[in-house]
Amino acid sequence: MRILVVDDDDVIAQALALALGEQHYAVDLASDGDMGWNHATTCQYDAIVLDIMLPKLNGIQFCQRLRSGGNLTPILLLTAHSKASLLIEGLDAGADDYVTKPFDLMELLARLRALLRRGQSALPPKICWGHLRLDPSLCEVAWKEKPLKLTPKEYNLMELLLRNPQRIYSSSALIDHLWSLDSPPSEDTIRSHVKGLRQKLKSAGVTEDPIETVYGIGYRLRKPIDPSLESPKLDEAALPETPISTLLIPSPNESLIADGMGRLWRQSQSMINARLVCIDQACSAAKRNQLDPTIAINAEAAAHKLVGSLGMFGSDRGSVLAGEVECWFEQVRSTTPLSATVLETLLIQLHQEIDRLNNTPMATTLLMAHGSPKPTFAEGDVKGAESEGKIMIMNDNAALRRSIVPILKPWGFEVISLPGNAHLMEALQLHQPDLLILDVELMPLSGIALCKTLRRSSSWSDLPILFLTALNDSETLHRVFAVGADDCVSIPFVGPELVTRILNRLERSRLLRSLAETDPLTQVRNRRTFSREAENFLRICERQHRPLSLAIVEVHHLKLINDQYGDLIGDDVLKYCAQMLRSGLREEDLIGRWSNEKFVVVMYGTGIQGVSQRLSDVLAQLRGKSFQADQGNVFEAHFHVGLSEYQVGETFQDLYDRTKQTLRDSAGTTSHFWNRTIHSPRLYQECSD
Fold first, then answer.
1. CB contact at 8 A, 73 and 47
2. Does pLDDT of 370 surpass 50?
3. Of the candidate ranges 13-27, 108-122, 644-658, the one whose mean pLDDT is the lowest
4. pLDDT over 90 percentage in the chain
5. Which of 370, 401, 425 is the endpoint of a domain?
6. 538: pLDDT confidence band, cut at 50, 70 and 90?
7. Does position 372 have pLDDT exceeding 90, yes or no?
8. What is the CATH number of the domain that holds 187?
9. Domain that holds residue 654
10. 138 and 107, same structural domain?
11. Quick check: 411 and 382 in contact, CB under 8 A?
12. Stretch 425-453: mean pLDDT, rounded?
């Protein structure tokens, strides 16, 4: 199968090419969006691995353009950004999945296999033709459970035919699917590979040739003559319990990838060092107060690339340090004054971490970072551990339910197992799961009927639902997704892939929830979420007889700022105000964006005097900030603040209305320019000279 990798970081691109090559994929590389677009429109790919931050044409624009042209090739996004809004934008643009840098190569390969199956009508993890079985997760072909020794191209040819049993492939089509652009073979080479594969199958005991030659056209998969050789349906009752140890043993491919990554690390050291030199030079300039904007931009870009490449080589600490360096330069470019000493300390730690990588065998580093199993928990300890989420499994097959539990528990999941005749609604209310796993065939109600009911329920319409079923025909899959299922995994399944699918679905669900609850511009709570949480604080305040105060912070004349300097400058003012509120107040304080120019803050357990003192520090930061508009225009934004303390019996709306009146009094009696602040038990006023 043929994969296109589009990434401007050569270290990451080469590592992906190595890992995908070990999995027998043909790989083409592109270093910018335009080159990737030319490849995608010239050749046919089975999947595209695409970085978001690309020169010339970014990943989101790439997705939009590809989908608008009707191209449905699965796309896996790579990004060093974890902002919900950016990730959702990428998925809405047409991407099928995403992985954040730094990423685990094994996880990326598992997600890619899942996308490839999804694009092939959700084929099961193992593909069968009679007694011939192909396992994509191990890159292994076996006849009657005896592995065959195939070359990578022979394996690719066998996999392509098994995945597309109805299609005839000409020699040119096989070249397009199985070879990269830099090494196209002749038709004689194709015939030689087909002949070699047939001979190996015959030597292994395969009496009937699976490859049919359609003369004058090409090759296709032959239908088995004996119907008894068709893949049997799974006897779910006979499923054994899955020992978790079998899921944690590195496959031969993982060992090969680790060895290859070691070679790639040695080859990439000059590039890694060049990026460090770029950052070191910027640090020296910052210490002399001579940091040029161009140098800062180059250093920020170098740190950004180190985030992904160091994490991929097993250094999570190095990735975190590089991310902090990137943030330092980003804040400096936004005119936020920062100490060069902080940057120097980060760089010392980053150099030490890279020295550690140089002195540690890469296979050991990767095993420590990605290959070591999650800690296992005793049956009674799982609920007490920090949970990744609650997974509810509803299936009539007790053996299947038992086999899933040891797969999920080591990952920190709390597992609730239910038979098909359980009262689902009562169980949902009791356990409040984060994800539900259903079977299609349940008694007395089918899983499809239950899924349809949940999607119509106001309480459970957003609950992620995954089907786990032995039925993988196209009609069943259509019915499953038509009623609102989020994903479908075929039985038999690969344990790590099931975990990856669940983690992916939960992560996307949390992103959507975060987007629904957070103001996308300022990253604080939106009005609806803030109102709901503020009401909860009021109830707690009444029960515990504790003080509570509300503050309204208003950006004065925001509309005039937008009209005079542009909406983007107005957005910068709002984002800076939100940033100062988050950094200057306590973590437990409730901060939200109430309207276009107003922020609201609830401080539990704090009276008006304490709130007044805290906000004076925040306002001092806001007052000292200068914003730069186009054509060298510099201005200061000004703010009004109103305060009120909660009175027993008030609703939140009552408290807000009273605080809003103090804000109006403040704005109506003073100039909008302020230079000093006065503390009052009821009002935080602005005064003019």
1. yes
2. no
3. 108-122
4. 5
5. 370
6. confident
7. no
8. 1.10.10.10
9. 527-687
10. no
11. no
12. 87
Check the CA dihedral 266-269-271-272 and report its sign.
Answer: positive
Number of compact structural domains in the chain: 5
The alpha carbons of the chain give a radius of gyration, in whole angstroms, of: 30
Kindly report, residue by residue over 296-349, the tens digit of the pLDDT: 888 888 888 887 777 767 777 888 888 888 888 887 776 666 677 888 888 888
Q: Extract the tokens encoding 273.
A: 């060092």
Q: Within a domain: residue 319?
A: yes
**Residue 418 and residue 394 in contact, taking contact as beta carbons nearer than 8 Å:** yes
Q: Tell me the backbone φ, ψ of residue 211, rounded to 5 degrees.
A: -100, 120
Question: Are 431 and 540 within one domain?
Answer: no
Q: φ and ψ at 467, to 5 degrees?
A: -95, 135
Cα(492)–Cα(14) distance, integer angstroms = 33
CATH of the domain at 550: 3.30.70.270
Q: Are residues 258 and 355 in the same domain?
A: yes
Q: What is the CATH number of the domain that holds 53?
A: 3.40.50.2300
What does the buried/exposed string (b/e) look like for 169-198 if buried means 16 or more CB atoms within 10 Å of the residue's CB?
A: bebebbbbbbbbbeeeeeeeebeebbeebb
The answer on 680 and 537 residing in a single domain is: yes
Q: Is residue 382 part of a domain?
A: no
3-state SS, 400-455, equals HHHHHHHHHHHHCEEEEEECCCCCHHHHHHHHCCCEEEECCCCCCCCHHHHHHHHH
Q: Is the pTM of this model over 0.85?
A: no
Residue whose token pair is 């990838």: 257
Same domain, 446 and 536: no
